[in-house]
Specification:
two-stranded antiparallel sheet; mainly alpha; 11 helices; globular; about 290 residues
């Protein structure tokens, strides 16, 4: 027996409605990215969950990509998130605090990605950890990676302008490409080609990698983000001294190579014909 979605055969497998598939795929891609960054930097893969911490601002909707999708709160939110993920508890004095409550509410969903990651990749993901440096890299990776599909005000409150891969969107249908990219078959192929190639054989100094994620995000901003602000942003993480020049150059070159590959694959899978045409122009009333 074959089940279908929009005419696609699923060989008897139970499948989700396409809109559910679209909503869930981006989170798993974030976990993949953080897991790989932990590997190349020799940090703790148990902090890959922190790549989903910025998502606490999805509720209430008017906070989304504003409250937690910036570097200014990365240190504090990573520390709180790691505490809640590992203990499942909130101190009594913080029970009415927005961030603490949201992490506890999101905990089951975030921890579910341990099984989802292992099922998709065939590789284990450890239980959540509390290492500050590893958690910072994972948190920063989410904000950096979001620039590929949405504008992000990464440098609030110092810079209100967004960071985004505008050049990529100009080469695509800037809305409909998400329908194609995040369809199940396409995003799975995208991840396999992005995260299982020779690029990830590199070995990078972890502080340099954290700094490079901030610097490369700054490079996509609509206005100039000064090197002074990048340095200040890194320092606010309190994860160690700034990296030396060579380590930072190596890390930035790695991120640029990853960027080129991501753009290439997004162009390829973002141009495929989507099965779900939610963004077609609607018919007008008679």
């Amino acid at each position: 027996m074959c089940r279908t979605i929009n005419g696609r055969r699923t060989e008897g497998k139970l499948v989700s409605h396409p809109e559910v598939i679209l909503r869930r795929m981006d989170s798993l891609t974030h976990v993949y990215f953080a897991w790989r960054l932990a590997e190349v930097s020799g940090t703790d893969k148990a902090s890959a969950y922190a790549a989903l911490f910025p998502q606490i601002d999805r509720n209430p909707p008017y906070f989304h990509r504003l409250y937690a999708h910036n570097f200014a709160l990365a240190r504090d939110l990573t520390k709180i998130g790691q505490e809640v993920m590992t203990t499942g508890k909130i101190p009594v004095k913080f029970r009415e605090n927005y961030a603490w409550k949201r992490f506890l509410q999101e905990r089951p969903r975030i921890l579910a990605y341990r099984a989802k990651f292992s099922e998709a990749s065939g590789l284990p993901l450890p239980a959540p950890g509390t290492d500050a440096l590893s958690g910072a890299i994972a948190y920063l990776s989410h904000i950096y990676f979001d620039t590929y599909n949405n504008p992000v005000q990464a440098f609030l409150p110092d810079v209100v302008h967004s960071c985004a891969q505008v050049g990529l969107w100009k080469a695509l249908n800037p809305v409909a490409f998400r329908l194609s990219l995040y369809e199940s078959d396409n995003i799975e192929a995208f991840r396999k080609r992005l995260y299982f190639g020779s690029l990830w054989e590199a070995r990078l100094e972890p502080h340099a990698l954290a700094y490079a994620l901030i610097a490369q995000t700054a490079a996509t901003c609509f206005v100039d983000v000064s090197s002074r602000l990048v340095k200040k942003t890194y320092g606010a993480l309190r994860i160690g001294e700034p990296p030396d020049g060579k380590d930072l150059r190596d890390a930035r070159e790695f991120i640029r190579e990853k960027e080129n590959l991501t753009i290439k694959l997004t162009l390829e899978y973002g141009r495929k014909e989507p099965h779900l045409k939610r963004f077609d122009r609607p018919p007008l009333p008679v």
